[in-house]
Input
Amino acid sequence: MSLLANQSASSRFVWPEWATLPLVGGGLVIFAWVIVGLTVTSWAPFDPVKLAGMRFQAPSMEHWLGTDSLGRDVLSRTLYGVRHSFPIAVFVIGCAVVIGCTLGAIAGYVGGWLDGVIMRFVDITLSFPPILLAMAVTASLGPGLGNAAIAMVIVWWPIYARLMRAQVLSVRQREHVEAAVASGATRSRVLIKHILPLCWSPIIVNATMDFGQVVLLAASLSFIGLGAVPPTPEWGQMISEGAVQFYRWWIALGPGVAILSIVLASNFLGDGLRDYLDPRAA
Amino acid sequence: MEGILRNAARAAAACATLGALSVTLPAWAQERPLVIARNLEINSLDPHRAFCDTCQIYLSATYQGLVKLAADDRSIEPSLATEWKANDNQTEFTFKLDPKAVFSDGSPVEAKDVKWTFERLKNLQADPSFMMKGVTAIETPDDKTVVVKMESPNSEFIGILAAPYAGIINSEVASSNGASAGADAATADKGETWFLANSAGSGPYVLDTYRPDDELRFRANDKFWGAAPAVKEIVIDQSADAVSQAQMLQSGAADIAMQVDPDTAETVASPDLTIETVPSYNYIYVSFSPGAAGNQTPLDREVRQALAYAVDYQGAIDFTVGGKGALQASPIPNGFPGTDDLPMPEENLEKAKELLAAKGLQDGFTVDATVASINVYGVDLALLMQKLQQDLARINVTLNIQPVASAVWRQQIVNPGIPFSARFYAPDYYGSAQYVQFFGMVPGSWWERNASGQGKVDLVNQKEVDLLQQALAASGDDVARLYREIALEMINDRIIVPVVSPNLILAYRNEVAGVRYSACCNLPLAELSMK
Output
């Protein structure tokens, strides 16, 4: 009798509408990497910057992803890599969203010459290919993850400024905003209480998708020697080391798969969020 | 039936064409350029500004010195000069030029060209100018006689003249294109740009084209006065790393790969290739610059000694070149005069800790370590730095590694200075004085200037100055004895600490002949041929 009741209960279980496969799958991968980043120091097989065995060992039971040219465990370095890539991605996206959305909202709502100045600045910044601009800024600041992060913020904020301005221009035409203005609400109150809450959906979706792109750009800068400095276990730098050891494929395998998983997961997560937050766009 | 006949006729025609091709292919193969894969890293093609390994190859192929280094890498042979003699105290050298010698434009090599060349080399005050240090006068009694006078004895002068940087330039051609040899040449000379597209020597090859970071192309000198080179055209193709060079070699895109490291060489297996491992005079060293602006902790002699004790030298050889290298005692490389039985570098953590504790630095400190991101002689300098970082961490010293482009390193080592770094060196000729004049703490040497922060701290070792003067005036067994004393002083300076003398990998296709390592010139192009 109880078995039948359980079967009946499970047959009645319905996935929530928001729990689409891309959203759940992407979210789980990102969540897993976050957990790895938070806990890896207590269970990683080896110290990521110290000698762990003979150099250039192929994958084995002791070193699942082999060892690199200094005898360091590639798996441990790959796992530790997330502790550098994720904080950078969060910092870059966070700063880009705050700076871009603030300026975009002001440009869209205030309009006039201020809008012109801000958006021309956005146009100028966006006219440079992102990787070239990031390279130029990092090269002038000097190598290092901190400088790479600053360079990427400079590359990324205009995207959010333009997106937010477009949203504000669209929402400010709506009737509830006109009603708020007619009822004597201050301009800042209208912007913060009546316009911005309706502008966040595309920003969130974009930020989620950009997360993987920032990880990729940070790795690219490290690959060409402008990001992390040795012996930081950073994925781009590890791939760079693997690239000159072409026949020792395992050196670049771990970081390569890590970057792939995060870029894919953030794209899936962004897609899922878009489906949920803005069904019309889907 | 008609269709069958037509197809048979077509097949016969195809076979005939293939047959003809197979007959003509060897002839074509003889005419194709010989391709060398190499990281060019050229700082200049001006013979008196150039100072790099590829420059040695280039200059020794396009210019000729008065003398040249023999294949044994020790003895000196005639080149433009048929005979030479020195006075008893080695302060005056007289050379007789070969009357047959002509430049690539057909004009004869004359004494005025030698005088102009040596004066320009000295007055330009560029990297190789130290070779003419001490020259007080150059006389030309006739068109084919040159007399060089020195302010003090220099028993190595003849050896110096075998260096590629001392190749004789066609003075008329160079002067008419902006080059200057006057006392104000350092500011008045405008010839460097012209030298990027032209050569003006008497060597077996002339410069065909140079495209930076792409290729350096030579063609045979039609007017060469010696035995014509077997290969009419040679291209040094830019290939930045060992793997891409090995791949070019395996695919047939290159005939010789010059910088394949031992790790990569292990992965290259083909019956079409020859891989030789030979000892070299090249070496990688770490440097201390106590006068560098970014120095947080005074790098005095005891601190430098402590850091030197903390280095795992054998481990560095294992990690950088897979064990295919040798320890080196002093900045004068193994096998050069004065290097017999020198004490090899020692790893001793206890002594290192004691020395630091005596300085109150037992808790360690951080040192900035900027290094060029290059792989040279099979050693990735950034990788070597990471190995040293691990070693020094054992005595609580943290290396703050900053990889930069090689050109940036060249600027930074001069100003503001780099407290701790790694670099490489290859000899320019067979003789120990070059190392004292470049690495020694003698006034004005390249490393004395840079390590002292252009004179901010006093690093001059007067004993080295005195010994060098004696060595340059000495002859016979005294030469080796004096250079040995200098080497011991240089070891004790702890400004330059050699880490590894890597073996050289010569990797080439089986049909190439004449590939050899030369101490002065890396790879003598004129000796190459195709079987």
The interface with chain A takes residues 241-243, 247, 263-264, 267, 318-319, 373, 375, 380, 382-383, 385-387, 389-390, 400-404 of chain B (CB under 8 Å). Confidence is low (pLDDT under 50) at residues 1-5, 11-29 of chain B. Residues 283-502 of chain B form a domain with the Dipeptide-binding Protein; domain 3 fold (CATH 3.10.105.10). The radius of gyration of chain B is 25 Å.
